[in-house]
Fold:
Amino acid sequence: MVTGTDTVDDQDAVPVRPWFAQDAGSVVAAMESDATRGLPGAEATARLSRYGPNRISREKPPSVLRVALAQLRDPMNIMLVAVVVVSVLIGEVSTSLIVGFLIVLNVVLGARQELKARASVEALSKMQVPHAKVLRDGQVAEVPAGDVVPGDIVQLEAGDIVPVDGRIIRSATLEVQEAALTGESAPVPKDAGVLAVADVAGGDVPIGDRLNMLFQNTSVTRGTAALVATATGMRTEMGRIAEMLTSVTRAPSPLQKELGTLTKVLGIVAWTAVAFIVVVGAVRGLGLSDLLLLGTAMAISAIPTGMPAFVSALLSHGAKQLAGAKAIVKNLTDVETLGSTSAINTDKTGTLTLNEMMVSTLYVGGTWYEVEGEGYRKSGAITSIAGAGTPDFTHLALGLALDSDATVGEDGSVVGDPTEAALVVLAAKLGVSAEETRLAYPRLAEVPFDSEYKFMATFHRFDLGGQERVVELVKGAPDMVLARCREEGGPLSGSQVPIANARAGIEAANERMSEKGLRVLAFAARIVTAEEMTAITADPMSLTHELAFVGMAGIIDPLRAEAKSAVGTALAAGIDVRMITGDHAVTAEAIGQQLHLGPGAISGRDLQALSDEELTARLPQLHVFGRVSPQDKLRLARVMQQQGLVVAMTGDAVNDAAALKQADIGVAMGSGSEVSKEAARMILTDDNFGTLVHAVEIGRRVYEKVVAYVRYQMTQLLSLVLLFVAATAFDVNSGVALTPSMILYLLFFVTVAGVVMIAIDPGDPHTMQRPPRDPEVPMTNRNAVASWVLYASVMFVAAFIPLVAGPDEPSPDRPSASMTMTFVVMGLGTVFNALANRRDPASGLTPPILGVLVIAAVPVVLIIAATQVGFLQNSLLTRPLTGGEWLACLGLALALPLVIESAKWVRRRRTASPTTIDVHHAVAPSRAAPTGTTSSVLGA
Structure:
C-alpha cells in the first residue's frame, strides 16, 4: 500500500514514489528543487497554479430546505399530512392544528440531527498553519502556508507546526509530536537517514515508523530541520483523512432502524384498518362527511402520532443524565445507540491511561525498585524487596535533574519533553529539586540528543571529596549507553565492577522492562580528567566512552485508577473491548495484559496484510492493535459492523476522525482535537474510559425505557384499532367507537402521563450483568407482537363491553353514558398499562412506586374532569357517570394489569437462573436469531 504522501501530482500521473525509502538528495532531485537555494519565485508561482493551494478542501453542507423536505418524506409524516388534509375537509380544525404541530415537531427534530453530520471536515480545514518559512531564490521567506508548493524547501524549529508532508533533508536533535496522526503519546526522534531495506519490505512503512518524513499539522518539539515538500493540500496525510471523512456515510442508529420498521408495519395496519372501515361504511350507505370523520378517527387512533416526540422526550431525559455523568451526546438517538453497544474500540493514551509519563521501575546495582505515585505528582515512595534496603539515589538524581531540560510545576504542568518530565518528577521523589540542582551545577557543555546515536550527555563541575572535578552525565537508549560503558557502579558510588560481569544482568533487565511495555532509559557517568578538559568544548562527543553504568529507569504512561475496573464491568456486560493505539504493539500488549483484555496483539503492518475475510476470522483472538494507521482504524470499525456488532470507538486525534464518524457511536475526548469532536457522536469531558462504560449503562437503561414505552404505546394503539374495526364490523355506533377529540385528549393528557411514569423509573440495577441485546432482532419479532396483541385484546374487550352493553344507546354526535364509559375505560386502562408495563419481566408494582402513583393520579383526575367539566363535556361529547358506572369502568380497566402481571409471573417462573456468558459468545453475531424465532427484550 502506498500513500498519497508519495505523489507530486495525481492529475499529471507522476509515478508513485516511497520517498522515505530514498536518500534526501534523490528526493530533492526528483522534486526538481535545490536544497540550498530552494525554488525560484517564478517556478513556485507556476507550481501553485498547477497543483493548487495547500489547503484542505471543505465539504459543502446540505441546505436546510433539502434536509427538511427529506424529513417530510418520512412515512410517519406522510401519514400525518394525510390526516391533516382530511381533518380540514371535514371541518375538524382543532384536530388538524394539533396533528400539524406534531408534523412540524418531527421535521425539526430530524433536521436538527441531520444538519450536524458534515461538520468534521470543516473543522479539519480550519487547522491550516497560517505561515511557513521556505527557501525561495536562496533567501528565507515567510509565506502563507497555503502558498507552499511541492518542491519547496521548508525550514522548521522547535515550536513550529509542519505545514506540508515532506522528506527531511537535514536535521539536528529533531523530535516531533505526531499524536495527531499516529496516536503515539511520546515525541518521535526524526532524522534525514534512509530507512533500512527490511523496513520498507512490500513498498510501505506505517506512518509512525517513517522516521525521515514529516507530516502536515504535526508539531516540532525539539531541534531544527529542513524538508523538501512532497505533498500539499489534499495529497497530504491530513488530506487523505479529509477524503475518508467525506466518504464515510453515517448509518442510522439501531433505534432509528427499528422505529422505521415499526412505522412501516403500523402504516400497513393503520391504512388497512382505515380502508376496511371506509369501505364497510360506504357499503352501508354512510355519507361522505361521516366516512371522512370515521376514517380520520381511525387514522388518529392507529397512527402513533406522538411516538417520535415521546421517544425524543425519553432520549432527552437520558441525554441529561449522560451530561451529568460527563458524557455529552450530540443527537438524542445516540443515547440509545450507547445502550446497544456490543464492542468498544478504545484509544489508549489519555483514555485508559493518564497521558502523563511516569517512572515506575528502577534497576540499580542489580536490584529492582518500584516507584509509587501518579503521573506528574511529585510524591511517591521507592520500594524494594525485603532486606534489599533503599540505597542513596542522590547520584542517580543528579543525572535525572541535570541531564534533562524539562520543568514540572507543583500543579503538574509540564514544559518540555514528557519523558524528561518523568525524570524530573522521579528526582523530586528522591528528594532532589531539579530547578535548584541546575542552578547549583550549571551545564559546562553538552552532547545534544540525536536519533542517530540515541543519547544525551552533559558536563558539570562538582565538589568530590574536597576536590573540584568535572563529571559527564549520560542518558539514552540502553543498548547505546551500555556499548560505551567500561564498568558498572558509577564513578560516584565507590563500588565498581567490570561491565563484562554485569552486562548479562543489565540486558536481561532491559528486556524484562521492554516486555512490560516500559520505555527504558539508561544512565551512566564518568569523571573527566585534567588532560581531557580541552575536549569538553572542542569535541565533547569524544569523551562519551569508558563510562560507568549507573542504572536504568522504566517509564510508562500509567493506567487510570478506574480503568481496570471499568474494563471488567464492560466485559461482564458482554461488551468486547479492544485497544487500538499508535504505540508499538509490545507496549500496547503489556497494557492490554494489565487490563485483562482478551487474547491476541497485532501490529498495523500485520493487520494490513490480512484480507477482510481473514481479519473477520481472527477478530475474536485479536484485542490489542498497535502502530495502526487511520485507514486501519476505519477498516476495523467497518469489518466489525459487517459482523453485526454495534461499535463504539474512542479517540482524540485527527487520525481518529474517520473511524469516529464510521462507528455507531464515535466517542471523542474533551481535550482532543476539534476535528475528532466534530466527527464523533459523543464527547467525554473527563477523557475517561470509565465514564464511557457508565454512559453505556445509562444508555441501556434508557433503551429499556424506550422498549417499555413502545410496549405501552403499541398496547394502546392496537386496542384502538381493534375497537374501531369491531365497531365497524358489528355496526356499533356507526363504527365511531370514540370521537377524534376523545382520542387526542387521551393522547395529550393521559398517554403523556404514562410516558412520564416510564421515564422516571430508575431502571434495572442489574442491567450491566447481562449481555448486549441482539441487534438483528427487530421490535416486531414474534414474541413482542404476541404480547402487544394479547394486551391490546384485553384492553379492547374491556372498552368494547360498555359500547355494546352500556346503560344507553351510544351516538357519534351527542353525549352518551355508553360512549363515555368506553372513553373512561380506555383512559384508566392507559394509566394501568403504563404502571404495569414500565418494567419487564420484573413486576411493575415493585419499588420505587410512590412517585409513580403520584403521577398516575394526575391523568385519573383529568379523566374525571373530562366527564364533569362543562366545556370538556361539550368538546368531547361526554356526560357525568353514576357511582355504579364508575365502579364498572374501574373493574373493566383492571383486567389489563392483571393479565400483564400474570403473564410476566409465568415467564419469570419458566426462566432458568441466569448463567455467566462468555464475552465472545455474548457479542457473537450468530446470536442474532432470525425474526420470529427468539424472544427479545421488547417482547413480553
Remarks:
- The chain has a mean pLDDT of 81.
